[in-house]
Design brief:
The chain is α+β, with helices and mostly antiparallel strands. It folds into 2 domains: 44 residues; 184 residues, Uncharacterised protein YcnI-like PF07987, DUF1775 (Immunoglobulin-like). It is built from 2 helices and 14 strands; from the N terminus they run H-E-E-E-E-E-E-E-E-E-E-E-E-E-E-H. The chain starts with a helix and ends with a helix.
């Protein structure tokens, strides 16, 4: 009987650990903040990059949504910034490349930049590309219900627009037009000419990302399994 309890406790503990680790990975996304802003305003944005693999992130490239006028960035020690422009001189891609170790496993980094929002209401879709030291690239370019969603900033005159967002995510209920560019990425040297064609307009229709709900459910299951494993361990120690 004791052996059965020991095996069951070990299984429950391992399962709980798996769910905890999976939950943490499912909720980690590359995100751009703020999630809402006013039309025509100058805004300070930040992009947050967590490193999800057991490898350092060495580079991040962010596509600038159509209609957004990128102006300045905050320099960060040990990171080189490259600005890619189109033929009209508009900045279309911003890339941050690590000059040293990059973003290690279990770490995250933030980069800030300033720009002018479109003059009309719209959705700004921030496509991001995360490069790891082994050469692999994670493309954060999907819709809200995908495994790798891009962040959305809603440009709106509604002051309550950002209150329905799920904490930690940047997607939100809206039927506004959105501007997004294609996944084709040109990250050459500074001021390189690039003509990236924009995608068709995209919309989101979710007040909470499915990935956020999944992470919450997984975390709850992990908590229940951990409690069950603890109770079995206590009962075993009393016998």
């Amino acid at each position: 009987m004791k052996k059965t309890h020991a095996k069951l406790t070990a299984i429950l503990s391992a399962t709980a650990l798996f769910f905890v680790l999976f939950s943490a990975n499912a909720s980690a996304h590359v995100t751009v903040s703020p999630s809402s802003s006013a039309p025509g305003s100058w805004e300070t944005y930040s992009i947050k990059i967590p490193s999800e693999k057991d490898l350092p992130t060495t580079k991040v490239a962010l596509k600038v949504p159509e209609g957004f006028d990128f102006k300045q960035y905050r320099p960060v020690p040990d990171w080189e910034v490259e600005l890619t422009k189109d033929e009209a001189g508009r900045i279309t891609t911003v890339s941050w490349s690590a000059e040293k170790d990059g973003i290690g496993p279990g770490e995250f980094q933030k980069f800030e930049f300033v720009g002018k929002n479109p003059d009309r209401e719209a959705n700004l879709a921030w496509d991001a590309f995360q490069y790891y030291s082994d050469g692999s690239i994670v493309e954060w370019t999907g819709e809200a219900d995908s495994d790798k969603p891009h962040s959305i900033t809603v440009i709106t005159n509604d002051p309550e627009a950002g209150t329905t967002l799920t904490p930690g995510h940047d997607h939100h209920d809206t039927a506004s037009d959105s501007g997004s560019q294609s996944n084709a990425l040109d990250t050459g040297s500074k001021d390189t000419s690039s003509a990236a064609a924009p995608d068709k307009a995209k919309t989101t229709a979710t007040a909470e990302q499915p990935s956020g709900r999944i992470a919450t459910v997984i975390a709850s299951v992990a908590l229940i399994l951990s409690a069950a494993a603890l109770i079995l361990a206590i009962r075993k120690s009393k016998r």
